[in-house]
């Protein structure tokens, strides 16, 4: 499991003579969309030299408040999954708004033309390289854990390597599913994927959204729906097995641990890593 603790970097000296000091590793925001009072997504410019694998994460942020004693400002950075695919000329992120969160209490107010800090050092375990070949790939997300799959669902390799792509997304409320649902709907008209993978590639995708605290067509935690067999019956596929199924998990800690236990002890799947590819990989959507 990949656990990169969000860190605050050492301050880069700011030259007091500069009227408007440029941020270190600055990128310009090109679009912001608010999905609910707790969720938003934004796009920004991509550093020319940045190469990443779909599913990886980077550290992004803003300048923190000036130190009351020295007046110096330090970058305030947090880990963020890159929601855009590796081929996109811009970067996209999908974010929570934590009202008293050091970063997102401010980040939620960014507008087109603003600058953010983006450290160009992508890492992560939710990558195709960490899985051995299979027939069917499952993406399991809760909340903002959908972000790395927003990248992987737009990545041609996903469809080149697998015959079936199943994405499950469990949220408390129905409105929290909208970013994911719209993204999946937009794939039908994705010119690059239609050209590279072939018309109708999107028919490989099975989308399984569920809510736990607000009425929606499918209620319940995905873990419970898998244990009861309901999810497999709804999707028309057998339970996961090591011969055909591969999976990526991104959610809160309890969700990740529950699925890992289910995979290892019920379905007989083995956890993989960049250095040792296997059947499934896990990453936290946030630190508890
Ligand atoms: C590998 C990794 C990838 C991440 N990718 C994303 C991402 O793509 N989008 C994103 O919004 N966040 C992501 N996070 C979480 C992110 O790093 C920050 O925690 C988040 O932006 C809030 O920052 P903050 O400074 O406002 O509050 P923090 O002090 O970081 O968090 C305050 C509290 O808010 C809650 N919280 C934090 N993040 C979330 C979240 N995403 N969903 C629900 N509750 C949360 C937790 O209870 C946390 O203790 C990721 C974290 C890790 C470790
Ligand atoms: N989402 C909101 O409307 C809301 C509003 C205000 C504050 N908050 C706070 O924000 C934080 C994060 O909330 P969040 O909703 O983004 O994320 P979350 O608490 O991780 O929940 C996201 C989804 O994951 C499900 N889930 C949790 N543990 C699971 C497990 N072990 N197995 C399977 N599914 C599991 C939840 O179901 P359950 O509902 O059954 O737990 C929910 O549907 C929390 O501290 C919360 O108090 C959230």
TrEMBL record:
Requisite cofactors: FAD
Keyword Zinc: no
Keyword NADP: yes
FAD-binding FR-type domain span: 22-129
Enzyme Commission designation: 1.18.1.2
Catalytic activity annotation: 2 reduced [2Fe-2S]-[ferredoxin] + NADP(+) + H(+) = 2 oxidized [2Fe-2S]-[ferredoxin] + NADPH
Keyword annotations: FAD, Flavoprotein, NADP, Oxidoreductase
Family: Belongs to the ferredoxin--NADP reductase type 1 family.
Protein's name according to its UniProt entry: ferredoxin--NADP(+) reductase
